[in-house]
Amino acid sequence: MEEVGFDILNLFIVLLSAWGAGALIKRIGYPAILGELLIGVIIGPSLLGLVELSSTLHIISEAGVILLMAYIGMEINFKDLGKASWAGLLAAVGGFVVPFALGYFVVTFSGGTTMAGLFVGIAVGVTSLATKSRILVDLDLLDTRIAYVLMAGALISDTLALIIFAGLSSFIDAGAVNMSEILIIAGKIILFFAFSTGFGLYVLPRIGKWMASRNIDNRTTYFTLLLLIVFGLSELAELVGLHGILGAFIAGVFIKDGVFHEKITKDITRVFHDVSIGFMAPIFFVTAGFHVTLDVFKTDLMLLLLIVGVAFVGKIVGTILFYLPSGNGWREGFAVGTGMNGRGAVEIVIAGIGLQKGIITQEIFSILVFMAIITTLSVPVLLTWSTNWLKKRGELVKQFSRKGYLFLSANPLALLLGKHLADDNKVVFIDANKTNCENAKSKGFDYVHGNILEESTLNEAVAKDFRTFIALTVNNEINMLASQLINDTVFIPEKFVAISPHSGEGGSINILNSISASTLFSGKVDIQSWIQKVQDSNYKEVEVSVSKKITTREWLKSQFSEDKDLLPLVIIESTGAKRPFRYDDHIDADEKIIYIE
Amino acid sequence: MEEVGFDILNLFIVLLSAWGAGALIKRIGYPAILGELLIGVIIGPSLLGLVELSSTLHIISEAGVILLMAYIGMEINFKDLGKASWAGLLAAVGGFVVPFALGYFVVTFSGGTTMAGLFVGIAVGVTSLATKSRILVDLDLLDTRIAYVLMAGALISDTLALIIFAGLSSFIDAGAVNMSEILIIAGKIILFFAFSTGFGLYVLPRIGKWMASRNIDNRTTYFTLLLLIVFGLSELAELVGLHGILGAFIAGVFIKDGVFHEKITKDITRVFHDVSIGFMAPIFFVTAGFHVTLDVFKTDLMLLLLIVGVAFVGKIVGTILFYLPSGNGWREGFAVGTGMNGRGAVEIVIAGIGLQKGIITQEIFSILVFMAIITTLSVPVLLTWSTNWLKKRGELVKQFSRKGYLFLSANPLALLLGKHLADDNKVVFIDANKTNCENAKSKGFDYVHGNILEESTLNEAVAKDFRTFIALTVNNEINMLASQLINDTVFIPEKFVAISPHSGEGGSINILNSISASTLFSGKVDIQSWIQKVQDSNYKEVEVSVSKKITTREWLKSQFSEDKDLLPLVIIESTGAKRPFRYDDHIDADEKIIYIE
């Protein structure tokens, strides 16, 4: 046995630094990994020398990389990839191939080995996914076509990079030169992918079914099982000459909803997230910073500038060029390129492996870390600028992948609101009450007759494809609990909840906040009496304009001061599209309101 | 930097073995740790030699011990300890002191060092907590006084063992002999406990409040924070000369409900459970088996038999003797002794530290592992036997710590049912409706006016002290969701849910099963109409006997076949105590039923 001491002190210091730096950098809108790399450079041997790499840090960080890659795999949904469209594929390929080629040439022309060139090419070609989703929210871009292209592009580019890396690293290990060796290696790789695909598509779902049939619902049992699958495929990948991270990634990809019960998959994915992102992976990224030498700024400044330059130009120009056939215009291609310019976890993992295997020098490794830092820093700046440019030109195209309104309750008021929204949206009603369902049917609406608490009802309604959930029963508790459920299981992003003014709902606002739901009608409304009025046709619809931009809350207040009893239903946008009237929204001067009174 | 390879293969094999052996042994009712130790002995160098200890296994298992001790600390509730009573304290002290002394003498008389004697003494004195809770459920003992004494006893004994171990290990490290050195060490230890207590009681709650005030609800952030606290206190303990596990344990003890939001604490505790019990700690226990040498059965058989004998006799006789003053009788003391006879995680951790520090030999370590295996094996056998003996003598005393019924809704039907149950139980009603609350008040009941979804309402009702939750609103969804909430947050063990026969509740049975709730009234009942009848005093109460033992379901069927419209409220036991009529219960021949019609 190798006797190695367990080193709590450095583990503590590194985790503390990672946490602090990550939290700081997140406050200014950057991903935690950036802070972790930077603090690693600062406290590591190259600058302050406060901590050095111990076996404990090394083992924990290696385990962290395996778990992180499994987690990244878990987050990839190939169904989303299927929807990714032509544009996303173009952006991904262009954004990978061009910087890959440029990176390769820069390294080989400046005297590096072919292998080093290929490694740097991959590192330069990679796109970081984590970097962007946060930025898309900050820039309010989630609904735009760019966002979908970006996310699909990053996904494809990551998968592409990993596959190329897989092939590459296995040949490096084997040092193969002649044809028969290459064939053997290729055969092994094919066998590995065939085996792991077969395992993931056929064996794993059976294990899942068997466990469900035996009523095994202990989360820890599933966690251990998934760890075994991750470590098992990881080791198998190593055995065929691929790197272990690839097996872990593939294991993660196959751990999907259909395999285990939805809640189990969700819980376990979160545990993998906690353990990798919250514990082990930060150790890896901080210690990656330990290997960085600042001397490159003196000794290899030219190469540093060249690689960073290639990373920028290659990614952005490559994206623009390959994006042209999508017909979305070169300016949108430019915006997509700026958004894909960040590098993150996958790049550092690959660069780290290159360093460990001696394929790239410490200087190149350092350059790649700085490249990750600089490109990641550039994303919000360039993406803000490029999307603002598109916005000004009126070329920022919106695209919803989740569409339509899912109503809980098909009562007369819900049907009335649904009628307005159905003009340009899919509207589906869920109700456990037969009469309500028949009413919905008679008005030509789609409906699902069932209890919203049941998974089968949500599946029947294909709840996860909706953009907005509207809970409009007379019962506050049901509305809120259903919204919470919808948020926790199928995650419909927008949730509008009707709140009646009866007693005992003091805590509702907290619940609404915690699931980012919003109050329908912008305030407490006696739903029951409005349902009655609509049912008895004892109301009239009024359409009004507003004189200036005003919040829904203010508008409602201004109306109440005139002592009218009214219920605002929808806001009509200048394009004619309608959206429900809710709290925390504002009405522009060119928009109108439909209310009933 | 020490360059150490990351060893996925052995990690995979050890985790797989641990999982398989743990699952097998759990099927026959033993704790997983027993299977892990055994498989470690089998696959390790002493028997098959399939795996040997690598740095990866070592580091992961050491990290696992730290996280496991933190988790054990988290599970300890000092409020429970406060309730533990005189009897629990007596059993704990007797069950620790006597085997401790005997173990010490056996080792020193057979030529061991004083330090080895003290270490073995602690290992022999420890009681395993995890071993028992499962057995208590299997033997249906959870409600007995023995169960409470056992749990409190094991808790106190663990804490006692860790404190003594703390003192001991610090003196061993220092090798102190003269008075001034001893004083310095003692001073350091006192400072450490003062600091960690101050931190836990004053600083930690402030951090919690500050984070809550900033609306930080990202679970991973809390997980990282708690890891930092665990590693931090662990390192601090090492710095003052105590072992790191002690700091981790203390950190765990202070991570309690009041400090963070209840849900966060619960989530994080589960993550610590998943990572320690589901991943890292099994690596530790399997590799502990690697250090075992089977030669002790030849070379040190006498010492083995002596230590195991001392463990049995010391624990059981010690418990009986010290338990006498409790006035609960020596036979109950005997049963408690058999229940406390298992050793588990804490013993193996302490023995492992003894081996690592060179205080005990590999032979003694092996003996201690076998002692853990044999004593743990004995627990279900001896405890079944001793409690059956008590049962036959009519001396198995029941004791509920959770008592009474918490009702959701104070509607007239609920008040009627509550009136029956209030004869010998605490009954509290929660209702958001003022009229219902005033009705409850006028009938002299305790009530809480508020929404059950709010934490403050549950706190006001002191929901966590109840044994049974009865959801009796007219709305199935509310009843079920409230029960789910009650199950997930304050965990009231019994949940009886009223189900009305309106459409759309096909999935309710699954929900009820998943939270082990039971249907009130043993079937679907039109709650609304019964409420009306009770409100209008349009009913009469009937008391009937049953001729033979019958399930509630069968009884109800037999009544319906006579075409009566009745609602069974409670079952009167032979002692006069009443319990609600529910599904999945049976009525004995000497019991009566009260129903309304």
TrEMBL record, chains A, B:
In terms of one coarse class, where is the protein primarily found? Answer: membrane
Bilayer topology reads: Multi-pass membrane protein
What organism does the record attribute this protein to? Winogradskyella marina
Q: What is this protein called?
A: Cation:proton antiporter
Q: Where are the transmembrane segments?
A: 6-25, 32-51, 57-74, 86-107, 113-135, 147-170, 182-204, 225-255, 275-294, 301-324, 364-383
Q: Which residues form the Cation/H+ exchanger transmembrane domain?
A: 16-384
Compartmental location: Membrane
Q: Which UniProt keywords apply?
A: Antiport, Ion transport, Membrane, Sodium, Sodium transport, Transmembrane, Transmembrane helix, Transport
Positions of the RCK N-terminal domain: 415-488
